[in-house]
């Protein structure tokens, strides 16, 4: 029996409006973009600031209750930060939900918006207005609460460490000592909804430009693939390990190959809709 693909609900604030054929709402696509992005941008409102706050943070999606859950399953987002940072303090101070028979309780936790973006190529067209990027972007909306359970906190710290380099948790000094546990906070974000927007393909120009022979002969058009490359490891000043660990080199080569394959091959394929 085919497995049903789960999707996030389309809310007014999460629905892709412009070029909506590029919108994606299935959990697997959105979670995959989030988990493969080295840095997330987390936005929240600080009551004492006139402007919304945006922070670059490290995070990863997973399920403490169901560790074997896949990307297409319902997952939480875990964010790693310093114990006394502004975000962590706000999350601890956020009031708990209260409800009555007549008034359902709102979701508990500090409201957050989380975004992630991969640039996969420069799309160079005949006119400046038609230039674009091949890209994969995702946005999540959820409510954050601090993780207070030690087992869940350790699990989340390992999850986030393994997202940087698989095998690194066991390849370093673990478990964290008391000072490290005390200085580190983990937020669990319960996701309310989310969406992704993806652009793949080649340049798309207007018909009147495509009919201009002189323009076609003068202006180069095409895609310049763009992807992250993990370079050769450089040993630190007090490193005494002669060889780069196998898990690190394997991950580096695999990640570089996957990134190149996506940018140079998969991201250049035209989708069913060829809207600009």
UniProtKB/TrEMBL annotation:
It holds the Pfam family Pyridox_ox_2. InterPro entries: Pyridox_Oxase-rel, Split_barrel_FMN-bd. It comes from the Eukaryota. This is Flavin-nucleotide-binding protein.
């Amino acid at each position: 029996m085919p497995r049903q693909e789960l999707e996030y609900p389309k809310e007014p604030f999460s629905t892709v409006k412009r070029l909506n054929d590029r919108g994606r709402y299935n959990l697997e696509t959105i979670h995959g973009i989030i988990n493969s992005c080295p840095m997330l941008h987390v936005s929240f409102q600080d009551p004492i600031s006139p402007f919304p706050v945006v922070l670059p943070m490290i995070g990863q999606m997973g399920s403490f209750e169901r560790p074997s859950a896949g990307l297409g399953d319902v997952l939480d987002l875990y964010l790693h930060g310093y114990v006394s940072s502004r975000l962590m303090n706000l999350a601890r101070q956020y009031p708990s939900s209260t409800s009555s028979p007549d008034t359902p309780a709102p979701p508990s936790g500090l409201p957050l918006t989380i975004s992630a973006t991969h640039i996969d190529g420069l799309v160079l067209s005949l006119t400046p207005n038609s230039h674009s990027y091949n890209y994969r972007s995702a946005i999540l909306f959820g409510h954050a609460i601090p993780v207070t359970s030690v087992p869940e906190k350790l699990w989340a710290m390992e999850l986030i460490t393994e997202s940087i380099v698989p095998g690194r948790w066991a390849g370093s000094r673990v478990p964290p000592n008391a000072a490290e546990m005390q200085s580190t906070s983990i937020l669990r974000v319960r996701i309310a909804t989310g969406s992704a927007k993806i652009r793949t393909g080649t340049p798309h120009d207007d018909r009147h430009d495509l009919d201009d022979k002189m323009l076609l002969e003068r202006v180069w058009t095409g895609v310049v693939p763009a992807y992250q490359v993990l370079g050769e490891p450089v040993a630190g000043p007090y490193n005494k390990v002669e060889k780069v660990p196998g898990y690190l080199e394997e991950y580096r080569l695999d990640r570089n190959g996957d990134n190149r394959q996506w940018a140079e091959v998969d991201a250049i394929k035209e989708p069913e809709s060829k809207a600009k």
